Amino acid sequence: MTDTPLLLTLVVPADVSESLLEALLDAPDLAPGFTTSPAEGMGAAVRYTDTTQAVRGRAAYLRIEILLDEPRAAALLAQLKPRFANPRIFYWLTPSLGHGRFA
Questions:
Q1: Containing domain of residue 41, as a range?
Q2: pTM of the entire predicted model
Q3: How many CB atoms lie within 10 A of CB 29?
């Protein structure tokens, strides 16, 4: 275990995003705050949920970023994975070399 904060990034299909956001909001002890932004998935491994996405060659996703310590990140993933078992949800963890507020 390390003291370095981690950035948990979740990339969630649009059709699942509201449910996952609600789960995060219902767990303020594990996800005290987070940032979201729209994203589009492209490539051979992307599954399209409708004809419009297939024609455009891009699938709609929501990107969620949460800065956490390692125990919270592990606990949050352990809570989310069984509830949202979906091969279209991607995540990764990266170390944060610095963070803070400007004021």
A1: 6-95
A2: 0.86
A3: 8
- Helix then strand count (H, E) for the chain reads 3, 4
CA-to-CA distance for 53 and 72, rounded, in angstroms?
A: 35
DSSP label of 43? S
Give pLDDT, residue 10.
98
* CATH code of the domain containing 24: 3.30.70.120
Q: Are 9 and 96 in contact (CB under 8 A)?
A: no
Q: Coil, strand, or helix at residue 19? A: helix
Give the model confidence (pLDDT) of 3-38 as tens digits.
789 999 999 999 999 999 999 999 999 999 999 999
Identify the DSSP state of 36: E
Q: Strands, DSSP E only, in 1-103?
A: 6-13, 35-41, 59-68, 90-95
Radius of gyration of the chain, Cα coordinates, nearest whole angstrom: 15
| Beta strands at 59-68 and 6-13: parallel, antiparallel or unpaired | antiparallel
Total of domains in the chain: 1
